User: Fold these one by one.
Assistant:
Number 1:
Amino acid sequence: MTRALFTLLLICTTALSWGQNTAEQKKLEQQKNKLQKEIKEFQSLLSTQNKKEKSVLVQIKESEAKIRLTQNLINTIQKQSRLLTDNIYLNQKKANKLEKELEVLKEDYANTIVKSYKSRSDQSRIMFILSSENFLQAYKRIQYMKQYANFRKMQAEELKEKMAELEALLEKLKEQKKEKENLLAETEKQKKELEADKKGQDALVKVIQKDKKKYAADIKKRQQDEKKLEQQIQKLIREAIAEENRKRAKENGKSTANVSNTKIELTKEGKIISDNFKANKGQLPWPVERGYVSQPYGPYRGQADGVKVHSNFFNNGLDIATSKDADVRSVFGGEVTLVTHVGTFDKVYTVLVRHGSYVTSYTNLKSVNVVKGDKVGIKQTLGKVWTNEATGETVLKFYIIQDVSLLNPQQWLNPLK
């Protein structure tokens, strides 16, 4: 009884582990496909752009983006390979167990056939029944013979099933081993590309090292501009929240003197929009049709190798490099709360779109198609991305804010399709 319970527990644990591995494999495959699409998009965009028009710092930034994408791809493939190795090991154990069970079944079936052969004549079966002491014993012997015949049939069926199961498992093992070979080959290919990218970056760094002071000043200025931009956007959002709350207080006949500038008071409609936006986390479309993440959300080194400026810089948004004159699209339905010039260039626009308690911010637009108060739908064009002629960059700066808290946009956007 104890042994049976242990076997059942082992089977359940193995099945659960297999299910988890399958789900993890699927997740890793999706992640790999996403990274491959981003790398493909990166290469496609670079092939259409004039390298001579770009500054060395921009080229280094692009090189770092490519290295980051390739390294992430290698890490994902290696995780897939490790998971596949575990699955191969489990399947091999299962195959070994099946082979042993099959040997026992074959032996039992062979013994049954031998016994059947020895008592194969109709006469011996009839004599077995007629030699019964009474009618009840004769009836039981007839039933026994029927059960024995059924048992032989069941043995044959079980033998067939085990053989088919083993054959399918061995075929799966063959496929998994082939898949692992492909993953290892892909890893080697990506490692070679990574090495080539790093060599290219080293060549660019040598150019910078010839004039460290100049490039250090450029990097520092870019960081200061980034910080200033975020502060300006935060200020504008606080002002917009206060304005909306004053409007709401006035409508309700309340005092407008001490309204909050950090949390918006939502109407019933605003609450529904806010909940819908939240429900679509991870499914929002990209704010541009094509592009790649040139600088992700989070901390990054504020330097080009050899020209250190700032070691604790943090990107609170998402920098998306795209093609020249690319359309900027709203990632969700909402209301335009602000269209203004923000940043160091007067000709560059920022558009804020409110979705209940959430705001999406689109910065670095050279032209806009909307005005304050416009209702916009999902993927509706807001304007076109600006290209910095001095650096050759065409980058959209994208933020997602809840009240005044800056969120990680990469957790909200759907993988680029």
Number 2:
Amino acid sequence: MFTANAKTVLERRYLAKDKDGNVVETIEELFHRVASTIAEADAAYGSTGDEIRELEERFYSMMTEREFMPNSPTLMNAGRPLGQLSACFVLPVEDSMADIFDTVKYAALVHQSGGGTGFSFSRLRPEGSIVRSTGGVASGPVSFMKVFNAATEAVKQGGTRRGANMGMLRVDHPDILKFIDCKEKNDEINNFNISVAITDKFMEAVKAGTEYELINPQNGEAAGALDARAVFDKIIDAAWRNGEPGVVFIDEMNRFNPTPALGEIESTNPCGEQPLLPYEACNLGSINLGLCVAEDDGIPTIDYEKLSRIVRDAVHFLDNVIDVNHYPLPKIDENTRKTRKIGLGVMGFADMLLKLGVPYNSVEAEKAAEEVMSLIQSEGRAASAELAAERGVFPAWKESVFGEENFPVRNATVTTIAPTGTISIIADASGGCEPMFAYAFTKNVMDGDKLLVCNDLLVERLKAAGVYSEALMHRIAEEGTLAHILEIPEEIRRVFVCAHDISPEWHIRIQAAFQRYTDNAVSKTINFPNSATHEEVKEAYLLAYKLGCKGTTVYRDGSRDSQVLTTGTAKAEEKPLEIPAPLFGNIMPRPRPSMTWGATEKVKIGCGSLFITVNRDENGICEVFTSTGKGGGCPSQSEATARLVSIALRSGISQKEILAQLKGIRCPSTVRQQGMKCTSCPDAIARTIEKMSKMLGADGMNFGEQLAEAEKPAEKPAAKGSKPVLGADDKLHCPECGKVLRHEGGCTVCDCGFSHCG
């Protein structure tokens, strides 16, 4: 029923636990808990006990058969005291100190309950504006974003889920240039995704090569003008640099706002797929398309009958969630029930294409996306109309676009394409509408062993072609793609494409195909190779706008990673020592002098003590030695790490880059223990080098003083139950398992179930 990986994620994140952290619920009990809680909502509409029990079984079956999964808060909290079941919220940020800090408080309550929040900071007066009530000067939107970020950090550390935010600013706000650069450093405002709300007027000015007006939100008056192309290029440069900001085409979103009489859409949830009015929430769920493939005379086809059945039950499920939900604020409860928005989406689209034998980057895939999503939208609205006939339309229906068309529906929106990081692991499905990220990879397991994980369908196809071998799978894992492995038949290579095999144009075309039949928006990452140019990123944004996408997020491979050596395309913060051109590719370390001097530090590791010696010569740190205490450890691995570090240091490789590669590496024997200063032997080596570098100094004259300072009593161990968290220098590594995170569906996710967005 569920894979070993899925069971691990469920046990770690979803199963009920007692006060000591012991699991007190089985997987079957979890899904019965969720199914019975959601089905019970039918009692308010006159269903009998037998009818409710029959509905519960249908809900239980479609979850345990992995056909449909609701969003994480529903799995976590349904039938439990907290009872908050929604993932997506938008809160207003009004232009007064009292309102701003009220919103900070409300956001903390939402994060505490397991939700993510979106904000538009466009109503805040620009930096430098006079505040009449005090005579002071306004600090501007970016300054207050930092306040929200700090609050999120505090709540995150006390809860079970990581808080996540979307910060949005209109492109015509006077502080837009500062906003675009506010995440230039990856460790700043790190609990936010940020997006520029781009207007049609701005895009017209970009096309024409003219200036556009900035508007002061305080009075609605013009506050200057900027060159549209220059601003657009600045957005492109920032996105090329580290993937932020994303862009939201705010006018396109409002063209499809189902309740314009209630207000304009100003922001979305953290991943951008759910536009919401202030104080609205939306509960999401996803259908596993990979299980909606049948065979007709031996030819794989989309099983539309099965898909239709799942859609109707899923809409019923999600509408019931609204009734049983315990919202964190009365205002959110009121506004959410007024529109009753739900967001039914998909996962496993890439799995479906593989079973159909259709490449992701093809016209056939584009057609499949349209057909599938068209059916989900039409069947979803039909199901919503049936519920409206039984239960009534949503309260704001009369003043909505559906009221104008006299089309009675229960829900103002029905469909959303969300990232499905964790729930797709539970369902053993590819994420959202994304392509496959990899078909084979190595996974670190206990005691430093590596496990080769392979896509079952690829293995099956390679065996049928007579070319399968374990060596071949290791090669696929190492290269990350099948594209250049010529011994694999061309037809298999054509179909089994990875995210980085696909041109940005096809990423966008697939997103646009889904968007054409999606009420809300589509969360998707447009992957670029590291070598991508600014012009290519620009072309992707222009195409997304042209094809009617409501927003887009790009990520250039390696743009946030620290890399030992670059190919000239990655932006380095610190230049290494210059190496003569003829020696490049054959770099030799400088000779070790006959005498060096330094110090040795004793570091506690998971299996004992590690003694780390760091020495310097006249040119700086030049060598590292390690030895282990009686407790054991991995002496050969530590020695190998130290030798390679020593060679790299004497070869002129930047110390900063070396340390960036070592810090944050996690060893299970260390991570499992509380109060550790390091996460592994390599991490300990890096931290000691960093410390010794400061102590030894440029001339070594301050060593005595620094040593005395270092020998002061150590900090108190971390409180019991604390866990490693993402730090500034290892933020791209999973804080739970240490594996490098990947960018998928507008979010950062890990195979272990961790998601930046919760």
Number 3:
Amino acid sequence: MSVRVRFAPSPTGLLHVGALRTVLFDHLFAQKHGGQNILRIEDTDRSRYNPESEQEFVTTLKWVGIEFDEGPHIGGPNAPYRQSERKEAGVYVPLVEELLAKGAAYKAFETPEELDEMREFQQINKQPTGYFGGAWRDATPEKVAEAEAAGKPFVIRQRIPRGQKVVMQDAIRGRVEWDSDLLTDPVLIKADGMPTYHFASMVDDHLMGITHVFRGEEWLPSFPIHWLLFEAFGWEKPVFVHCPVIVGADGKKLSKRHGATRVLDYAAQGYLPSALKNFIALIGWSPGNDQEAMTEEELVQLFGIEGLQPSPGRFDIEKLKWLNGHRIRSMSPEEVYDALLAYIAAPYTRQYWTEFVDENPMPNKAPVVGSEVLARLDRIPSAPKEY
């Protein structure tokens, strides 16, 4: 089996540490098995889509040293690679019609006001909140046809089987079970005809031949929905790998006080991409020995799903500093100087330090002032006579 993985971000903001770990695991796994790594842009939420964010993702990953075999910026046999463009190309229509014909999906015509009333009733009566069928899950064909003839807007929802135990397989946790009666009927196609993440992502994974899906464990509640969607189509499922949550060194949810969360900020702070990759790879994964400092080649050779842990991965900025220092000490003077010049010339360096505010100053030390950092960088000669 030829390995095919995908990084499928929704470009609504900046590229952060969690997303970098996902795409790094994709990259290492594909490299190890001689497979392909695909970039797919999941931009079905057009109200939040930001083209500048998409460009930052590409720029950041290029700095990190992660490249793709297929994607919107390089093309490929599965183009287009933006879901909005795939929707316009008619990729999803025949497949949702297939689900409707099978009875695995249905049209629901509730107004926003009716949905609000449903949620309010559920809350007042201490019932599970969500859409479990409403008035349309079991509506007669005549009732549906009448609503369509009247021009009522509708969404298309997945018909979740009731009274079943959904048994799934996760590569890290093994057997995962879910009571189908606790699952709501999710929207697959919105009223404007745009597919939701639940539908487009799973359809595209199948059509693009994705064999392994690396994603964060925050997607576990959606896992049974996606599993059932594959079963409704009768498709072979990819291997799902739900990577552990990332926490700070104190065990609490990762935030800015644990270190920067935007990946390009690490570039602006002077961290080497090789050190950052080494550090990120070790958050939730172990090579099976005590080795921590690894080259790119060693990471590729040692990486495997069996080394991933279900327990939270710790983000320890001190380990990143140590790995970065280890990398720098292994470089020749010429390599250090060339890296320094590239760092000074990079646009993100000046932007970062121009806007920098030291929100976490060191105890008993004056806060770092961005303008002073830039002044020191500007004094470094661009062409010394000798190293």
